[in-house]
Write a structure and sequence with these properties.
Helix content of chain A is 79%, strand content 0%. Chain A has 313 residues and is mostly helical. The longest helix of chain B is centred in the first third of the chain and has 24 residues. Chain B is of the alpha+beta class and 510 residues long. Chain B is globular, with a radius of gyration of 27 Å. The chains are: A mainly alpha (313), B alpha+beta (510).
């Protein structure tokens, strides 16, 4: 298992290098001069030319990328064109908020989505099933920014229970997490329901029932464990998406996060910041995927055996 | 007897408790609010006043730093870090007597060396060149006196010295580590930086040793909320005390309908305009430029583009400038004349042109209305929306455009700032702001007379001639001046919408 994890970690290196190269290239091909973006709208051509020279922007693309890569390997990802702050500092400052919102959202979708999905499958076509399917459909359909604004309208403006913006206390994270969890919750409910429906029709479930095992034991011990594999996959992908795609929620609730950082970097053509933040998001996404793969081995012993066989051969 | 004493004691305790509870319950005795929460659109790029020209960054610089001069609410200028000034006879030197005993946030006393260093740093910086391009050098005369030498006589120089681009910083602290200074600024202003939570908020605290006395509001927080709707809801819920709302009329209505909020409005310090490439392409022909001027219906444009929240402008100037010619008439709306001019210019079957604009609603929405208006006179205008930096590279610096929609933003209420750079031939060909490639010796003459004149009457006359030439030659077509808006809690006193977004929180109180 350790070997497998190390192999996966090594495989991340070309992925990260590839992402950095592609991003660097895209930023180079998009119109707009970083020197002008730094100096402002009214800088003269001479001033812009001088800054381009100072920043090494007149060098060949490959020279610039190589210089960036060499510095990055040494831990220097450069300074933001926009704020002159080292990009690592900026990412370090932003990541905790994004992680907190994403983690709370994913936990919410697990804690609510899995039980609802199970009940929905076990009582197929009952009122509870119809309500849960309809709720999932609504949560999938409503745009996050609208849902967020409606929550602010109700809980901040009308009821005054929760703060509208900011990230000062745990209360500030309730509405962003619920907003972000909504779509993921819908996916979790639907996925749990459909996999559970498939599993509870299997022969071994019928056998367990025939052997006199309790209904609760059959559902939670035999069926759910087998139904969880695809759910865990979806949750893993969802968590990765939540980490990188919390932009709208961050923007609506005024939370400092990676999403807004990336968008602002694109807008201001802040290449060092964009490349580093996307690389970081990719690294976190890869680690989450690895974590999900490792989790498989605990949920399904057959997967673990497969890894062991491969390692032996 | 003992019981009576006990009862008396208990009664007194109850009375004291009741008094305390009553004190707490009545708002009269409640602690006054000492915090102001404002909305910021984005993170502060830098706190170094010499490394930004961004109006959003400068908003906080006006709280942290001060310059030699200050602008009052009515637009008049008064000494800030100086006690007085005098121009020399030729008008190209200004000597300032410095205010004594002014302290920086680090406790150091402001010296003439600090002032000279700050002004010379601003003069050398490409970021602040808009304010300092007429300044040559600052020199120390003695410990209390500093002389600012100009490249030529320039009456609006005092207005430039109001700008945060000319902030006074402590020389030693700045030179010790300019990068660190940009994160932990030290000024003489009414507020000191307390903390920054990137992407979330910026906290400031009143400077107790401020030379005009500590600010009435002790704490100032800039809360970063990029989304307009979320910000408005935050204002309504009390999470914000003041904000610059969007220009959507629904937002204005919501604010005006809320009894706890007040809506403030003032004309922006810029005139939006239809700009032409005067040197090449379809609009090098004056008849085509005239045709656009005749085809423009300003009222319709204002309604369609900015929901009526603007004032029409017909003169090539900005209304807040003292030289703005009131009642000036431009070419009047006349579609028949416009159609005839298009035909006369050699396009009997109409002509197709492309308007390159910055891809932001300020520019794209007016462009769409203009597109519809020009279609009526035989000009089929395509709109090419570009990323801001690209537009500056292609249109502003490169001159690769036929027609555009832009503005003449100014930071000093003087006509020189909305005319010389945009119209003088020395600023053309990528050397400055004359992106419309205007090269007219007669116009240069009046622009120079306005810039270097020391008699306000002479300057007014020069700028009137500039407006006439721009109209007669249809060099560009002024359209409207938008509105600078602000919304705040009704209990906040001292706030007003400032055309140039200079907000001095020191003047506010609860």
């Amino acid at each position: 298992m350790f070997k497998y994890i190390m192999k996966r970690l090594f495989l991340m290196i070309p992925v990260i290098v590839g992402i950095s190269f592609i991003l660097f290239l895209i930023m180079d091909l998009t119109p707009g001069d970083p020197a002008r973006a730094i100096l402002g709208d009214y800088a003269t051509q001479e001033q812009i030319a001088a800054l381009r020279e100072e920043m090494g922007l007149n060098d060949n693309f490959f020279v610039r990328y190589f210089r960036y890569a060499v510095n990055a390997v040494q831990g220097d990802f450069g300074k933001s064109y926009r704020t002159s702050v080292p990009v690592v500092e900026e990412i370090y400052a932003r990541f905790p908020a994004t992680l907190q919102v994403a983690f709370q959202a994913i936990m919410l979708s697990i804690l609510l989505g899995v039980p609802i999905g199970v009940v929905s499958a076990v009582r197929q076509y009952s009122a509870i099933d119809i309500v849960s399917i309809a709720t999932a459909l609504i949560f999938t359909s409503i745009p996050a920014f609208w849902f967020g604004l409606m929550l602010i309208l109700l809980f901040s403006l009308k009821l005054g229970w929760l703060p509208a913006v900011g990230a000062d206390s745990w209360k500030h994270f309730i509405m962003p997490s619920v907003t972000l969890a909504a779509a993921q919750l819908a996916t979790t409910i639907r996925m749990t329901r459909s996999t559970m429906l498939e599993v509870i029709r299997q022969d071994y479930i019928r056998t367990a029932m025939a052997k006199g095992a309790t209904r609760r034991c059959v559902i939670f011990k035999h069926a759910l464990r087998n139904a969880l594999l695809p759910v865990v996959t979806v949750l893993g992908i969802g968590f990765g998406n939540l980490l990188g795609g919390a932009l709208i929620v961050e923007s609506v609730f005024g939370i400092s996060g990676l999403g807004t950082l990336m968008v602002n970097s694109v807008k201001s053509k802040d290449a060092p910041m964009l490349v580093a933040s996307v690389m970081f998001a990719a690294l976190v996404g890869s680690l989450v995927n690895l974590g999900v793969d490792v989790l498989y081995t605990y949920i399904d012993p057959r997967v673990k055996i497969q890894y062991l066989r491969r390692a032996k051969s | 007897m003992k019981n009576a004493m006990k009862f008396k004691g208990l009664f007194m305790v109850c009375l004291a408790l009741l008094f305390a509870v009553t004190l707490g319950a009545f708002p009269l005795f409640a602690a006054a609010k000492d915090t102001l929460t404002d909305r910021a659109l984005a993170d502060q790029k830098t706190f170094d006043p010499f490394k930004t020209s961004d109006i959003n960054d400068q908003k906080l610089h006006y709280q942290i730093y001060e310059s030699l001069m200050r602008e009052e609410r009515d637009g008049t200028l008064s000494p800030a870090l100086c006690t007085g000034y005098r121009f020399n006879d030729t008008g190209d030197e200004v000597t300032f007597t410095l205010r004594e005993g002014v302290k920086f946030h680090n406790g150091a006393v402001m010296t003439a060396d600090d002032v000279v260093f700050s002004l010379n740093t601003a003069i050398a910086s490409p970021f602040t060149s808009k304010m300092t391009s007429t300044m040559k050098e600052a020199v120390k005369i003695d410990d209390k006196t500093v002389k600012l030498i100009l490249k030529h006589p320039f009456l609006p120089i005092l207005g430039c010295l109001v700008s945060s681009s000319c902030s006074i910083v402590p020389k030693e602290a700045y030179l010790a580590n300019p990068d660190a200074f940009a994160q932990k600024p030290i000024g003489t202003g009414a507020y000191m930086l307390k903390g920054v939570k990137r992407g979330e908020k910026i906290d400031l605290e009143a400077f107790p040793d401020y030379h005009r006395g500590p600010a009435s509001i002790k704490y100032l927080t800039e809360r970063i909320i990029p989304d307009d709707n979320a910000a408005l809801m935050a204002l309504e819920s009390g999470a914000l005390d003041m904000m610059n709302p969007s220009q959507a009329y629904t937002d204005r209505d919501a604010i005006e309908a809320n009894p706890n909020l007040v809506y403030y409005e003032a004309e922006q310090a810029c005139t939006f305009l239809i700009g032409f490439n005067n040197a090449k392409g379809v609009f090098a022909d004056k008849r085509m430029r005239d045709a656009v001027a005749y085809a423009l219906d300003r009222e319709d444009l204002i309604l369609g583009a900015v929901n009526g929240m603007a004032n029409p402008v017909e003169a090539a100037s900005v209304p807040i400038c003292p030289q703005f010619p009131k009642n000036f008439k431009g070419l009047q709306y006349d579609t028949e004349k416009a159609k005839a001019l298009v035909k006369e210019a050699g396009y009997p079957n109409g002509v197709t042109v492309t308007m390159r604009v910055i891809g932001a609603a300020n520019y794209t929405k007016p462009a769409e209305v203009i597109q519809a208006q020009l279609r009526k006179v035989g000009i089929d205008m395509k709109i090419e929306a570009m990323e801001r930096g690209t537009w500056f590279d292609v249109v502003y610096a490169g001159g690769n455009f036929e027609i555009t929609y832009y503005a003449t933003p100014i930071s000093v209420a003087d006509a020189d700032f909305c005319s010389y750079g945009y119209l003088h031939s020395s600023e053309a060909d990528g050397k400055g702001n004359n992106y419309m490639s205007v090269k007219k010796p007669e116009l240069d003459k009046y622009l120079e007379a306005g810039r270097m004149g020391t008699d306000p009457e002479v300057r007014n006359a020069a700028y009137l001639k500039v407006c006439e030439i721009v109209r007669d030659e249809s060099i560009y077509v002024p359209t409207y001046t938008g509105m600078r808006t602000y919304a705040a809690h009704k209990d906040l006193k001292g706030l007003y919408a400032d055309p140039m977004m200079r907000y001095y929180v020191y003047n506010y109180s609860w």
